[in-house]
């Protein structure tokens, strides 16, 4: 688990640290780390450091100051450094002086354009983006955007890629796309909400005294610790029985996929209720499949919605599931039904756990009648919907945002987009259902399910197109990866698990 802090939180902590540290010390520490990373990137891209050419794109603030100081450090390693200033009158004076002293070249962005010389940047071995950092507001100004568009070399972003909103991660197409981002003091929301723009994120410790984080990111070990394992006293009923109410005559596949991921994620019982009982039985013979929720028997959690349809029949299924009074994951058509017929909420016991797993359009359907808009601040919108409906809300996306009614929020960033494939959401529904059935904190359960979904997607894809069925097949591998990280399963290299280590 690692934390993510908002700009306001970071600034407050930085102010305290700045007051204690000698003048400019924090910036030099930050810039030194940028220079070390820049040298490593030069070596990786060109096989060497000395004699290579680095272009610094320098804005008016301290972010530009970091870049200038980094340039001064790079000069000591005989790197040719050119700083392109976007606001020559407001450029960080000590940083500029340091670069000049070190023999760096300084040019005015406007003059270069006037002389037809924006190609300066295309000749660089590396570009350091110091245009804007924590104070960024809105998209890049056109002058800076034109320079960024001309870049062809690897890019190192200072603190965050310019043009990405630090707190929401929102980015217009003109924003910098970095290969590496070197950030200082704390991860900011942009690093997880706009991960593809940041590339590899390196955190430089500034010794900040930070409050509780605004967002949290679960790691494999957290998921491995949270995932319920069967113990010696367990049987198929005691590990949490998952119920799936999904699919229809038209969409039996949704049922097969949601059931399948629950089956593959746990060793406990999975029950199915719905119109696709025959298809489910033939694909998953270990599942007890019935036609209706009433006949399904007792479960510890329901997953409902995918492929259910939005007619009266689906409405009745959702009502029956909510009447069961157990933790429930509502997805897809289930969300549309809740949006269309709010009286369905009357079937829910107050405070009984509900996890909603909308994509953007489903989110809009259920949130807009409540006056909540899914704008560029996905975290704020998710939190607000979670609070208003008293549910956990998992907003799907390249970065999935998961908020509890109390505001605690997890973010899970995907590392590829192969999961954007039909049926992928149904797989997640089954995973959330299985995680809820196993018990524990619903937010962490939803977060763990999301992590496993992403990891199973990576395993299934392996860098090539995949399918939801392949993701289901990869679920045990994802669970294993989490358990290995948590030291609860033998590693892939054959290392012993805790039990074997102790007892041979
Ligand atoms: N405060 C600290 O302790 C430290 C701060 N550091 C650096 O300081 C940065 C923050 O510095 P500043 O607060 O001076 O602000 P920035 O350098 O982020 O921004 C400076 C100015 O850029 C302009 N600007 C805003 N949005 C823009 C846009 N979209 N396009 C073009 N220009 C825009 C604004 O006039 C803004 O005031 C951090 O990101 C980090 O890089 C580091 O030196 C580490 C220590
Ligand atoms: K930057």
UniProtKB/TrEMBL annotation:
InterPro entries: CARKD, Nnr, Ribokinase-like, YjeF_N_dom, YjeF_N_dom_sf
Chain sites annotated for binding K(+): 63, 129, 162
Cofactor note: Binds 1 potassium ion per subunit.
Reported cofactor(s): K(+); Mg(2+)
A Pfam family per the record: YjeF_N
GO biological process, one term: metabolite repair
Source taxon at top rank: Bacteria
Catalytic activity: (6S)-NADHX + ADP = AMP + phosphate + NADH + H(+); (6S)-NADPHX + ADP = AMP + phosphate + NADPH + H(+); (6R)-NADHX = (6S)-NADHX; (6R)-NADPHX = (6S)-NADPHX
Residues engaged in binding (6S)-NADPHX: 62-66, 133-139, 159, 254, 307, 359, 426
EC identifiers of the protein: 4.2.1.136, 5.1.99.6
Molecular function terms from GO: ADP-dependent NAD(P)H-hydrate dehydratase activity; ATP binding; metal ion binding; NAD(P)HX epimerase activity
Domain (YjeF N-terminal): residue spans on this chain: 10-214
Residue ranges annotated for the YjeF C-terminal domain, each copy included: 219-482
Binding site for AMP: 396-400, 425
Keywords of the record: ATP-binding, Isomerase, Lyase, Metal-binding, Multifunctional enzyme, NAD, NADP, Nucleotide-binding, Potassium
UniProt subunit comment: Homotetramer.
UniProt family annotation: Belongs to the NnrE/AIBP family.
Function: Catalyzes the epimerization of the S- and R-forms of NAD(P)HX, a damaged form of NAD(P)H that is a result of enzymatic or heat-dependent hydration. This is a prerequisite for the S-specific NAD(P)H-hydrate dehydratase to allow the repair of both epimers of NAD(P)HX.
Name of the protein: Bifunctional NAD(P)H-hydrate repair enzyme
Organism, as annotated: Actinophytocola xinjiangensis
């Amino acid at each position: 688990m690692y934390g993510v802090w908002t700009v306001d939180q970071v600034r407050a902590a930085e102010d305290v640290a700045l007051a204690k540290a000698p003048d400019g010390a924090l910036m030099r520490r930050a810039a030194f780390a940028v220079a070390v990373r820049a040298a490593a990137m030069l070596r990786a891209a060109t096989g060497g450091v000395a004699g290579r050419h680095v272009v610094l794109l320098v804005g008016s603030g301290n972010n530009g100051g970091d870049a200038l100081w980094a340039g001064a450090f790079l000069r000591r390693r005989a790197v040719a450094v050119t700083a392109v200033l976007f606001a020559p009158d407001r450029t960080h004076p000590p940083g500029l002086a340091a670069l000049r002293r070190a023999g760096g070249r300084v040019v005015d962005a406007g003059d270069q354009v006037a002389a037809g010389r924006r190609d300066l940047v295309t000749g660089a071995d590396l570009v350091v983006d110091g245009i804007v950092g924590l104070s960024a507001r809105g998209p890049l100004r056109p002058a800076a955007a034109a320079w960024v568009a001309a870049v062809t070399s690897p890019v190192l972003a200072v603190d965050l890629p310019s043009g990405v909103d630090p707190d929401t991660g929102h980015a217009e197409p003109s924003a910098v796309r970095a290969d590496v981002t070197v950030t200082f003091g704390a991860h900011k929301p942009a690093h997880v909400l706009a991960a593809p723009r940041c590339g590899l994120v390196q955190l430089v410790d500034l010794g900040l005294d930070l409050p509780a984080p605004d967002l949290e990111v679960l790691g494999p070990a957290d998921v491995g610790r949270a995932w319920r394992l069967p113990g010696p006293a367990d049987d198929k009923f005691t590990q949490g029985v998952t119920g799936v109410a999904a699919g229809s005559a038209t969409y039996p596949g949704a049922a097969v996929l949601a059931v399948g991921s629950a089956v593959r994620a746990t060793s406990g019982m999975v029950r199915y209720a719905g119109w696709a009982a025959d298809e489910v039985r033939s694909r998953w013979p270990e599942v007890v499949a019935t036609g209706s929720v009433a006949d399904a028997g007792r479960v510890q959690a329901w997953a409902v919605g995918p492929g259910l349809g939005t007619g009266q029949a689906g409405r009745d299924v959702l009502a029956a599931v909510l009447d069961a009074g157990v933790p429930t994951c509502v997805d897809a058509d289930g969300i549309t039904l809740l949006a269309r017929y709010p009286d369905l909420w009357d079937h829910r016991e107050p405070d009984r756990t509900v996890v909603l797993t909308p994509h953007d359009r489903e989110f809009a359907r259920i949130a807009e009648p409540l006056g909540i808009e899914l704008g560029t601040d996905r975290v704020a919108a998710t939190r607000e919907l979670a609070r208003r409906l008293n549910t956990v809300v998992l907003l799907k996306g390249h970065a999935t945002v998961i908020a509890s009614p109390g505001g605690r929020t997890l973010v899970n960033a995907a590392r590829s987009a192969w999961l954007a494939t039909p049926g992928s959401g149904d797989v997640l529904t089954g995973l959330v259902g299985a995680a809820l059935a196993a018990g524990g904190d619903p937010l962490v359960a939803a977060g763990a399910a999301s992590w496993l979904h992403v990891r199973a997607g990576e395993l299934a894809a392996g860098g090539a197109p995949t399918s939801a069925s392949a993701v289901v097949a990869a679920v045990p591998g994802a669970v294993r990866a989490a358990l290995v990280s948590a030291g609860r399963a033998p590693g892939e290299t054959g290392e012993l698990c805790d039990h074997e280590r102790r007892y041979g």
